[in-house]
Recover the amino acids of this structure.
């Protein structure tokens, strides 16, 4: 038999129909939806007198728009309208919804894995570009637009061009104090914001194997920031352990054993060929901080902002520095922050919060810095509270919020003010992303925590041992 | 979907790379539940200052560009968020054709599904068009049937596009109807693979 990558294995298995010169029609196993990118798709169905083909393969939550404090009363009327629309649409079409106050509610890319909806070998789509997160489990998961959401509703399939395959090989081990977030930022810094355009990326190598499932989710999450619609990691025992006993994973031991077998067989065959392979040396990676307005504008904490004379894309760098209110050649450790945001589908899982809490335990947030923690899901919040993490954060001066996307995109009230400078564990540092005129620096939870305490960026490697 | 066969229009050039969908349509406008009405908010934060006044350093609203319907821009256009509000807002504003050295994957699909023609040309040509458009009076005629772009000087530039996308635009086909032609295959698949529902 020919040797195949996991990408080809999943793809080929899901092809419903194939015709020369046309995209394949691909079956979709799991369709996750949320309030922002679904209303127009439901409306389209109604207008065309169509229905949802497989409501039982569809799962909805509310995350982008929900308030994370004073949740009882949604003041924003238009946001409320959107949330109400989702509720009504789900009930009309028979779709399971984990809405506000539901124990399964949370950021769509946090709850999928947490509930065991995300499983190896599945094709998973969602009207959100960070759907790549689910690839951490060896699923083929990618973001789609609203027309495609409607297409999946109506047909449970998507017409997709077969993507090229890329191996992102991470050699060696990550040094102590360097996280999955630093790794993916370093990858994007090295290869750029569109290295993955047209590809599905598989992350391989020792450093990837050594990551926790949470770390793998962080890496796959940001695939889209490198232009790849999907990024995934072949399943192994860690994947299996994580999924065992989750709500929507079969409880029957025999059934689970059979699934396990199937899942592990998805692994890329030894010697399988990719269309392209790129490599990075993990041992050289340091904690990373983004300085600019796209996720490739990133340097190590020991570094400086670029010098205009030393870069090719002078206009872009100049614009970015100006927007960010930074000088060229400025030391990263000399940058003060006014805000800290720990949350988002990149870094808001229990392990992320634990690691941040370790840094701040017994310390105080620097005066003048506004720091918030937004757990990724209702359950993450509950679990964190059970082990007292909320206390650690609030004692240090952080605000402890309810789950949602929050300041990752600032659709609700959690907005960084114009000119505000935020150390953020999210995934996008685009202009205005966290608020009009807001300046975002992407970092790991540990780096964000340390920045909250010091009021500026510090090297967490020295910090945690101090 | 409306058929797209040819289009002539004024060029507005936005000489920046990696324009993300957060810039095309900022999040505060994502709360609507309709597909229409996004046009006035396109590139909002670049066009308007904090007080809602037009910025003088962004030229989309300058009189000479009024009615522009062909956007010429830099590489990796439409990266970032998958929001289809981006093509909706561009189309609603009046852009029917976008020409760039490259596009982000999700945006590419989203745009075609809304009948916007995306054309990929090399950077030199883009630079040339950008320069010519500074006059505010640079028009292009785009012929999808024959796959060429014509300047008023008569100069013609051919372009490439997948047959699939071309046919779809020329005929105004919508994807769902196309896929449903193969509904029997979907049924067969479901009978064979038995996808397990969420219970
Ligand atoms: S947390 Fe941010 S990136 Fe993730 S789904 Fe929500 S808005 Fe998108």
């Amino acid at each position: 038999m020919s040797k195949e990558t996991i990408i080809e294995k999943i793809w080929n298995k899901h092809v419903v129909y194939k015709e020369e010169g046309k995209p394949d029609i691909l079956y979709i196993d799991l369709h996750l939806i949320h309030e922002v990118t679904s209303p127009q798709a439901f409306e389209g169905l109604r207008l065309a007198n169509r229905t949802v083909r497989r409501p039982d393969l569809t799962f909805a939550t509310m995350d982008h728009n929900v308030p994370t404090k004073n949740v009882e009363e949604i003041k924003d009327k238009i946001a409320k309208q959107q949330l109400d629309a989702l509720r009504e649409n789900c009930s009309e079409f028979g779709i399971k919804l984990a809405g506000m106050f539901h124990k399964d509610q949370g950021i769509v890319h946090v709850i999928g894995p947490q509930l065991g909806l995300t499983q190896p070998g599945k094709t998973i789509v969602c009207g959100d570009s960070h759907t790549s997160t689910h690839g951490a489990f060896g699923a083929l998961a990618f973001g789609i637009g609203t027309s495609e959401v409607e297409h999946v509703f109506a047909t449970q399939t998507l017409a997709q061009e077969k993507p090229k395959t890329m191996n992102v090989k991470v050699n060696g081990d990550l040094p102590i104090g360097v996280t999955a977030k630093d790794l993916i930022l370093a990858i994007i810094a090295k290869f750029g914001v569109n290295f993955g355009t047209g590809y599905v990326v598989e992350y391989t190598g020792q450093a990837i194997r050594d990551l926790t499932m949470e770390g793998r989710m962080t890496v796959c999450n940001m695939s889209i920031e490198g232009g790849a619609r999907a990024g995934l990691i072949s399943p192994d025992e860690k994947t299996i352990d994580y999924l065992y006993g989750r709500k929507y994973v079969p409880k029957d031991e025999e059934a689970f054993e059979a699934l396990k077998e199937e899942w592990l067989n998805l692994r890329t065959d030894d010697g399988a060929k990719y269309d392209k392979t790129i490599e990075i040396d993990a041992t050289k990676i340091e904690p990373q901080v983004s300085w600019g307005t796209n996720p490739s504008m990133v340097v190590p904490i020991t570094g400086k902002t670029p010098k205009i004379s030393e870069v090719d894309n002078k206009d872009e760098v100049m614009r970015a520095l100006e927007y960010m209110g930074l000088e060229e050649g400025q030391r990263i450790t000399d940058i003060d922050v006014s805000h800290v945001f720990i949350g988002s589908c990149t870094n808001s899982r229990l392990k992320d919060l634990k690691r941040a809490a370790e840094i701040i335990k017994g310390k105080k947030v620097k005066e003048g810095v506004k720091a918030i923690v937004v757990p990724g899901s209702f359950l993450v919040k509950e679990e964190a509270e059970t082990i007292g993490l909320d206390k650690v954060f609030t004692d240090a001066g952080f605000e402890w919020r309810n789950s949602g996307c929050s300041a990752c995109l600032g659709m609700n009230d959690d907005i960084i003010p114009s000119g505000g400078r935020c150390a953020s564990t999210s995934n996008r540092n685009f202009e205005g992303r966290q608020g009009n005129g807001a300046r975002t620096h992407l970092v790991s939870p540990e780096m964000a925590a340390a920045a909250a305490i010091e009021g500026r960026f510090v090297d967490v490697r020295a910090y945690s041992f101090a | 979907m409306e058929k797209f066969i040819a289009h002539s229009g004024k060029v507005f050039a936005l000489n920046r790379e990696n324009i993300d969908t957060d810039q095309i349509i900022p999040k505060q406008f994502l709360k609507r539940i309709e597909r229409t009405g996004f046009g006035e908010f396109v590139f909002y934060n670049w066009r308007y200052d904090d007080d809602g006044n037009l910025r003088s350093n962004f030229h989309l609203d300058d009189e000479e560009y009024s009615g522009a319907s062909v956007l010429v821009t830099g590489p990796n256009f439409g990266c970032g968020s998958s929001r289809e509000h981006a093509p909706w807002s561009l189309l609603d504003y009046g852009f029917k054709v976008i020409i760039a050295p490259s596009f982000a994957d999700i945006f590419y699909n989203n745009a075609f599904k809304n009948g916007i023609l995306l054309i990929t040309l090399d950077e030199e040509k883009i630079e040339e068009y950008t320069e010519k458009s500074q006059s505010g009076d640079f028009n292009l005629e785009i012929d999808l049937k024959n796959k060429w772009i014509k300047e008023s000087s008569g100069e013609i530039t051919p372009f490439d596009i997948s047959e699939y996308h071309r046919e779809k635009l020329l005929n105004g086909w919508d994807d769902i109807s196309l896929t449903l032609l193969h509904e029997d295959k979907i049924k067969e698949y479901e009978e064979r693979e038995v996808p397990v529902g969420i219970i």
The longest helix of chain A spans residues 77-93. Chain A has two domains: 6-276, 288-463. The CA atoms of residues 336 and 456 of chain A lie 4 Å apart. Chain A touches chain B through 73 residues (CB under 8 Å).
